[in-house]
């Protein structure tokens, strides 16, 4: 939508300027086009008004249309719904866009399934098809986005006959507090399993779920390949939060040293 807005401004204004050139029957240096491509919308508009008064009204209309389309981009989120993480366009990850979801199921401390709920869909929620977890007939994989929390790695729970890690159940229980709640997802990237790596903000004060897990000793900093730490943040930011939990011997740090979820997963994968 934003690319379209910029294209409308550029293409329409360029057409207007070229038309003005033709109608006057003489050639001028196209400084206006240079301004458009290198100096931004404001500079281009000034150039059009100064050099081509007849085109200024049309240029203003073009810019108005482009601005309107740009502003309408978030409004489109009112209507557009993503059934699974695969439905989310790549540009939304690149822009780190955010939208509202309802938490449907918590798998463990850092993985959960959510239903994307645009504003209009939320208003008429009783008409929505429900997943089996909500008493409906649809599979979770068909109607929910699988989310992997950014920046943190929570202790693994018992799965497929494998023992869970210490504090794995506690971390899961902590996240289950938002099950059935409406929260906000901020996209970061898509991982190798097709899950949306994202920040989840919840509650009245928009608490960061990853930060809360880390601060309570219910997760460690994710340091494996593809780690996402959020916009304007580095690994050091998360290390400081983890360090405070370790000093206070919270959660996984109660004995002074926490088991590494990444190492645990490698052992399970190797069948040890």
UniProtKB/TrEMBL annotation:
Keywords for this protein: Endonuclease, Hydrolase, Nuclease
Superkingdom assignment: Eukaryota
The answer to keyword Ribosomal protein applying to this record is no
Tell me which residues make up the TNase-like domain.
97-255
Q: Which GO terms describe its cellular component?
A: cytoplasm
One Pfam assignment: SNase
GO molecular function terms here?
Answer: endonuclease activity; hydrolase activity
Q: What is this protein called?
A: TNase-like domain-containing protein
Organism field: Pelagomonas calceolata
